[in-house]
Design brief:
The protein is an alpha/beta fold. It is built from 9 helices and 8 strands. The two termini are about 15 Å apart. It binds adenosine-5'-diphosphate (ADP) and adenosine monophosphate.
């Protein structure tokens, strides 16, 4: 299965993507995670991406498209993948169509997670991520068993630099302007599945699995 999961920042894409990847045995390809890994390793790509990420802006299309193209050519993507956080502009979506056509592939479904704006800020600001394995928690809705420590590996949890309230507001604006038009783009292609993301983590997961198993 070849999937895209989209939605505003804090909608729950990464949380649901981890579940879907396991359920359907496909790799979870998150462009945000790729940038954060590069930033942690201090690569030129990571340093370039940081300039945009910390301001809540999008990394330029050509940079992101090149990374995704490269990643999709890996062996583990041959039988499917789940793209999380990509595409984020119509230009990226068109580029993705081109890349997949060249590989004789196409997207099966695009999951769009809808969440009211006021909920997004609370979710993103309360997000905590593991500095070592990247697992995501929430201070209120998905808290670890020991405060500030990852259940999976015991490492420290931190707030992402771009999850401060003012940056989250900017990221939501960027989503509305640059990414939301993709809903119409994929709807016209008949690929869109809208998911009510305003429910709890488990309930949203059940909706997604039901929709994909249809
Ligand atoms: P995204 O990848 O869309 O930015 P995440 O999956 O990282 O969003 O979720 C943002 C925050 O909200 C995380 O702290 C996560 O634990 C929490 N979260 C995700 N889905 C839900 C939900 N359905 N209800 C409550 N909190 C959620
Ligand atoms: P995410 O982890 O998906 O919330 O992404 C974090 C940040 O990485 C975004 O706010 C952007 O700065 C950058 N980023 C991730 N994916 C993309 C993309 N497809 N296009 C442009 N920038 C991206």
């Amino acid at each position: 299965m070849r999937l895209v999961i989209m939605g505003p920042p804090g909608a729950g894409k990464g949380t649901q993507a981890a579940m879907i990847a396991e359920e359907f045995s496909i790799p979870h390809v998150s462009t945000g995670d790729i940038f954060r890994k590069n930033l942690k390793e201090g690569t030129p790509l990571g340093l370039k991406a940081k300039e945009y990420m910390n301001k809540g802006l999008l990394v330029p299309d050509e940079t992101v498209v090149a990374i995704v193209k490269d990643r999709l050519s890996d062996e583990d993507c041959k039988n499917g993948f789940l793209l999380d956080g990509f595409p984020r502009t119509v230009a990226q979506a068109e580029a993705l169509d081109g890349v997949l056509t060249d590989m004789d592939m196409q997207i099966d479904y695009v999951l769009s997670i809808d969440v009211p704006k006021e909920v997004l800020v609370e979710r993103a600001v309360g997000r905590r991520v593991c500095t070592s394995c990247g697992v995501t928690y929430h201070v209120k809705y998905n808290s670890p068993s020991r405060e500030g420590l990852c259940d999976a590996c015991g490492s420290e949890l931190i707030q992402r630099e771009d999850d401060r309230e003012e940056t989250v507001a900017r990221r939501i604006e960027v989503y509305l302007k640059q990414t939301k038009p993709l809903i119409a783009y994929y709807s016209e292609k008949g690929l869109l599945i809208s998911i009510d993301g305003g429910q709890g983590i488990k309930e949203v997961g059940v909706q997604i699995v039901k929709a994909l198993e249809k």
